[in-house]
Amino acid sequence: MMGTSLYSPGDSVRRPLAILSALAEEQAGLVEQLQGAQCVSHAGREFWQGQLSGLPVVLALSRIGKVAAATTSVALIERFAAGAIVFTGVAGGVGPRVQVGDVVVGTGYVQHDMDASPLFPRYQIPLTGQTAFAADAALARSLVFACVVGLQGLQHAGRAPLVHQGLIASGDRFVNGLAETRSIVDALRHHGHEPLAVEMEGAAVAQVCHDYGLPFAAVRTISDRADDSAHVDFPAFVRDVASVYAQRIIRELVRALAG
Asked: Do residues 220 and 91 make contact, with C-beta atoms less than 8 angstroms apart?
């Protein structure tokens, strides 16, 4: 079950580490670093197999939204026998101390647009009894370590990026207005959830990994504050900041796991 076991490099020949990227720019940089790269087409997607720092991996783009991310995750598990899934991407920061250029490593994942009430409590995934799915604790710790080491020496807007840990909220909507952000965050807080970031895929991947008993962890680079400026200079941020962060973080993570 999630939170109880870490992906073990000892059986990595049989079960590679799956690295899901939200952005093509992130995946392109990782594919360039693959040793013995092989591209496999499956389920309308491209999956890249190979090794990073001697660790067998499989890379894939999640695509956008919860259904697309869940489909990709199932393919990674069923077709490519992934031993663990790590997700990199961008998100809107909603925690009071989370700033643009920081990163958030998720400790839990909730779907902010799930509401099957009154049949089930708000945010609870029907028939599971669960609202927030926990990240694998050991894998998340490894990811935090990779962030701290990988981001050393970098700055954005004159400040070093901070590494935060906490709840990430996912939903099938691009949250980019202050009123919408406040509505989502206030509702989550009312039900006892304190999100640090909002995005569109993580909670779906966490649910799939929970169902399969697979370790999962994710890191999100904060590209905006999920307010009325959420669209400003996004392509430049992805190119110059988020992709650089992701490649450095994954490099340190695979080194630690291969260690």
From this structure: yes
Q: How confident is the model at residue 1 (pLDDT cuts 50, 70, 90)?
A: very low
Judge whether 78 counts as a catalytic residue: no
The whole-angstrom separation of Cα 247 and Cα 244 is: 5
pTM: 0.92
Of residues 26, 102, 199, 252, which has the active-site annotation?
26
H-helix or E-strand spanning residue 89: strand 84-93
Hey, what amino acid is at 60? A
Q: What is the pLDDT of residues 240-249, one digit of tens each?
A: 999 999 999 9
Domain 11-254 carries which CATH code?
3.40.50.1580
The catalytically annotated residue of 102, 199, 224, 252 is: 224
- Quote the mean pLDDT of the chain: 91
Q: Where are the chain's structural domains?
A: 11-254
State how far the Cα of 16 lies from the Cα of 6, in Å rounded to an integer. Answer: 13
The residue type found at 226 is: A
Pairing between β-strand 45-52 and β-strand 55-61 as defined by DSSP bridges: antiparallel
Could you read off the pLDDT of 78-103 as tens digits, one per residue?
999 999 999 999 999 999 999 999 99
Tell me the C-alpha distance between 131 and 151, whole Å.
32
Run of H or E including 163: strand 163-170
